[in-house]
Write a structure and sequence with these properties.
The complex is a heterodimer of chains A (655) and B (237). Chain A is α/β, with parallel strands linked by helices. Chain A folds into five domains: 147 residues, Glutaredoxin (3-Layer(aba) Sandwich), CATH 3.40.30; 202 residues, NADH-ubiquinone oxidoreductase 51kDa subunit (Rossmann fold, 3-Layer(aba) Sandwich), CATH 3.40.50.11540; 84 residues, Ubiquitin-like (UB roll); 90 residues, NADH-ubiquinone oxidoreductase 51kDa subunit, iron-sulphur binding domain (de novo design (two linked rop proteins)), CATH 1.20.1440.230; 67 residues, 2-Layer Sandwich (Alpha-Beta Plaits), CATH 3.30.70.20. Chain A is built from 24 helices and 21 strands. The radius of gyration of chain A is 27 Å and the shape is globular. The C terminus of chain A is likely disordered. Chain B has 237 residues and is α+β, with helices and mostly antiparallel strands. Chain B folds into two domains: 75 residues, Ubiquitin-like (UB roll), CATH 3.10.20; 143 residues, Alpha-Beta Plaits, CATH 3.30.70. The chains are: A alpha/beta (655), B alpha+beta (237).
Chain lengths: 655, 237
């Protein structure tokens, strides 16, 4: 059925709302990649068979990710007239219990994570109902407190595979409005008021970019969505497409109309199969409803959207390399200018925007640019989604207003490391970013402030590091990454990074000298200033920031041959304390290099010649005995029993 | 004249054709800007990073070969920082593969060697990588020695843009990038190579040479290639 006007859209909206807020209980299982990884598919299947077995009148749907990845599988239960209740870490064996409760019109209040009485999808408000006083509102629990969901407005609530649910919450109304008004310049005006900046990392003003594309001569133009997210530790774009693909499509159609493009491409990582699947499904649905393809909404405007899966090169996230890849050439960047908005895909004007940038567009169109600019800071308005990972209790997708200090991420939302270990640093912006030390956690997160520290905001990866992370190793890891992802076109990045990696390897192996450290300090700025594209220009950041803020760790590795985090294998030796060893054979059994001698009830000994420093002995020696200890550059450390992190977000059960 | 732009290079006013590169404009005005990957008439790629110049108002140095002149541009081609960067890049090039001049066919007429001495680089402060690389002597007339290749892609471009044969390309990525004939076969087995030899003439080092040349015997005529490419109208980026 093709939608032609507001009335038809309203009709679909009513149908969708009947599914989204049905007159019977609705159970939605969070089936993003994060949820599936923690067993959500099994939970979903158990719910399906339980409903079949009981013959119950319950709606079961798949939904996306509600952001709290540490607590997956998340399941939300909507009982008509009652608030939507979210359960965390749901196990298949709990399904039946949850189901029978729901059928009886109630939930286990002590077991629930949080509830939603009313949700503002920004394109429409949905009131679920009131009640369940024993469950906190969603924004009362630590993880969500301080978050503001603009991009993630529909995440984990609607069914991403059903266009009608997206329409139910006001989806595609912004598009209808845009096409009805037929004033594309007004969209640019709203973007100017919103001062929206590109969410891919560079933070270029979207309005400027779109305007130059709009004014570029030529009747054939392209819009491209950059979903080639490849930073280690970042998965915002994956979850965005998995959980709400239609927002992306709507944003792109509005963008295409504004800029006069008739063709669009989503360049998505092939490593994101679920995102590809859901987006393909969404494109097919949007075409069937007349929201994509020829004569959209009867306006005469046509726009075709296709999907291209990347072949696995990180550098293809750089726009000129992406264009080369789309044209069937090797993914190597070229110098700009000319910018893609003048000469892009097949020589035609092309506008490339990040996934998250497109997600902001329908909201800005529907709520206005002024409304958008109220959130965030003067120069960086709006919110930004970050994936908070690493040594942190509450991992997940976090959307906060820009300008929020780093401290809030780590301690308030993230809940610290979850054990007695102290947070040492926060790595932002992936391999292009830098490490910010704990002392500087008061820095607000915006484009300028992070650049000041030598890091970048990037696409939104945030990796928390504690005292068990060696900063030399961290720098080495990221340079190893960019080194293997460098396209090899320009000398600075190709050979410069190779030397950087060799030096960092040398230092982490205890062979480094002060001259090596100085060489890093000379190479870094040279690579940054003379590389051809963003990959090379930002690749030295992890090295330069660790050298700036954690210089003592480099010095320790060089002078004392010590790795105080006990990470660099060449600098760590394992020994067995003869006084503590009970001769239990546990370590001898796991040692892969058969370096541990001694039979049962005899004190064991590690042959340093044969030892491969894998640390297996350390991890099996019972903490009660703690006979195995590590030594590095004159300091020793025993195994400390790592206190298990308390389950994040779980409240103490009320008696 | 509408097609002329005026810019300032190292304090001197220079007139240039609109659309021309900073490198061409500066060279026409008698300025020296080092470069290895550029051949006038071929598409500029900005691979060697030696021609970096400072443009007023832009915080980062820009490659002169791919930057187009603009009216009122203020450019400096020499600075302490630029010199340092150029020397470092030269050292990176020298340390990347096996540039052993004493046994090279191009010794004495090698652009890499000349550029190193012009930039005052006599050795590399970075450790030499000494990779083990093959020599392809399968072609009846020419030899490809990967040990001398600096991946400037002059051969790739002259083959594609002037000869139209598209025999050469770069395969793999990063520091493992290699010049490859056709689909990485032997050069001698190439079905596209026309044996015209333009790649050899365009090559700045001893990587591509005429078979049978001994040490110091190989001289190149890159100017002829450049004239051909320019006469064709040149390829604009």
């Amino acid at each position: 059925m093709k939608i032609r006007d507001l009335e038809a859209l309203g009709e679909v909206r009513r149908q969708g709302l009947a599914k989204y807020k049905p007159a019977r209980p609705r159970i939605a299982v969070g089936l993003g990649t994060c949820g599936i990884g923690l067993g959500a598919e099994e939970v979903y299947q158990t719910f399906v068979s339980a409903v079949e077995a009981l013959g119950a009148d319950v709606q079961i749907v798949r939904t996306g990710c509600f952001g709290f990845c540490a607590e997956e599988p998340l399941v939300n239960i909507a009982i008509p007239g009652k608030p939507l209740v979210i359960f965390s870490q749901v196990k298949p064996e709990e399904a039946e219990h949850i189901l029978t409760d729901a059928l009886a019109g109630t939930v286990d209040q002590a077991r629930a994570l949080c509830k939603i009485q009313s949700w503002d999808h920004l394109t429409g408000v949905v009131n679920f109902g009131e009640g369940f006083p024993g469950i906190p509102e969603w924004d009362e629990i630590d993880f969500y407190k301080g978050q503001k969901k603009i991009v993630l407005r529909n995440f984990g609530l609607i069914d991403p595979e059903d266009i009608e649910e997206y329409i139910a919450v006001g989806g595609y109304e912004a598009l209808l409005k845009t096409l009805r008004n037929a004033e594309p310049e007004r969209i640019v005006e709203e973007l100017k008021k919103a001062r929206l900046r590109g969410r891919g990392g560079a933070g270029f003003l979207v309005a400027t970019k779109w305007e130059s594309m709009r004014n570029a001569p030529g009747d054939r133009k392209y819009v491209i969505c950059n979903a080639d997210e490849g930073d280690p530790g970042a998965y915002m774009n994956r979850n965005q497409i998995e959980s709400d693909p239609h927002s992306l499509i709507e944003g792109m159609v509005i963008g295409a109309y504004t800029m006069g493009a008739s063709e669009g491409i989503v360049y998505v990582r092939a490593e994101y199969p679920l995102a590809v699947l859901r987006l393909k499904n969404a494109v097919a649905q949007a075409e069937a409803y007349g929201l994509l393809g020829e004569d959209i909404l009867g306006s005469g405007f046509s726009f075709h959207l296709s999907l291209v899966e990347g072949a696995g090169a990180f550098v293809c996230g750089e726009e000129t390399a992406m264009i080369a890849s789309l044209e069937g050439r090797a993914g190597r960047p070229r110098t700009r200018p000319p910018y893609p908005s003048e000469k892009g895909l097949w020589g035609h004007p092309t506008s490339i925007n990040n996934v998250e940038t497109w997600y902001n567009v329908p909201v800005i169109v529907s709520k206005g640019g002024r409304w958008f600019a109220e959130t965030g800071t003067e120069r960086s308005p709006g919110t930004k989604v970050f994936s908070l990972v690493g040594k942190i209790k509450n991992t997940g997708l976090v959307e906060v207003p820009l300008g929020t200090p780093l401290r809030t991420f780590v301690y308030d939302i993230g809940g610290g490391t979850g054990d007695e270990k102290a947070v040492k640093a926060l790595q932002t912006g992936g391999p292009s970013g830098g490490c910010v030390p704990e002392e500087m956690f008061d820095t607000p997160v915006d484009y300028e402030a992070l650049a000041q520290l030598g890091s970048i905001m990037g696409s939104g990866g945030m990796v928390v590091m504690d005292e068990d992370n060696c900063m030399v190793d961290v720098a080495r890891y990221f340079v190893e990454f960019t080194h293997s992802e460098s396209c090899g076109k320009c000398v600075a990045c190709r050979v410069g990074l190779d030397h950087c990696l060799r030096i960092l390897n040398k230092i982490s192996e205890g062979q480094g000298t002060e001259a090596d450290r100085d060489a890093l300090e000379h190479l870094g700025p040279m690579i940054r200033d003379t590389s051809l594209c963003g990959l090379g220009q930002s690749a030295p950041n992890p090295v330069l920031t660790t050298l700036r803020y954690f210089r003592h760790e480099f010095d320790e590795h060089i002078e004392k041959k010590r790795c105080s985090a006990f990470v660099c294998p060449e600098l760590v030796c394992y020994y067995i304390d003869a006084e503590r060893c009970k001769g239990c054979m546990a370590c001898a059994k796991v040692c892969p290099s058969k370096a541990i001698s001694g039979s049962r009830r005899e004190v064991h000994n590690i042959d340093q010649e044969r030892c491969s420093r894998c640390g297996s002995c350390c991890s099996v020696c019972s903490p009660a005995i703690a006979a195995v200890y590590r030594e590095s550059g004159g300091i020793t450390r025993r195994i400390e029993p790592r206190k298990k992190a308390k389950r994040a977000g779980h409240r103490e059960k009320t008696p | 004249m509408p097609n002329q732009v005026k810019l300032k290079i190292d304090g001197e006013y220079v007139e240039a054709k609109a659309g021309e590169s900073v490198l061409d404009a500066a060279r026409a005005a008698g300025k020296f800007i080092p470069s290895l990957c550029h051949v006038k008439g071929l598409t500029p790629v900005g691979a060697c990073r030696l021609c970096m110049v400072e443009v007023a108002g832009i915080p980062r140095p820009m490659p002169a070969c791919t930057t187009t002149v603009q009216d009122g541009m203020v450019i400096s081609t020499v600075s302490e920082k630029l010199t340092r960067y150029r020397q470092m890049i030269m050292q990176l090039l020298l340390s990347e593969r096996n540039h052993v001049c004493a046994v090279c066919v191009s010794n004495g007429s090698c652009e890499l060697q000349d550029m190193a001495s012009k930039l005052g680089v006599t050795h590399s402060e970075f450790p030499y990588r000494y990779p083990r690389l093959p020599v392809d002597a399968s072609h009846p007339r020419f030899v490809l020695d990967h040990n001398r290749c600096i991946l400037c892609t002059r051969c790739v471009r002259v083959c594609a843009e002037v000869e139209g044969a598209n025999t050469w390309n770069i395969m793999s990525r990063g520091v493992t990038s290699m010049l490859a004939a056709d689909l990485n076969g032997n050069w001698g087995d190439s079905e596209t190579c026309t044996m015209c030899g333009k790649c050899v003439e365009a090559c700045p080092t001893g990587a591509l040479a005429v078979k049978g040349k001994a040490v110091e015997e190989m001289t190149k005529n890159t100017d002829a290639v450049s004239r051909l490419a320019t006469a064709r109208g040149g390829t604009q980026q």
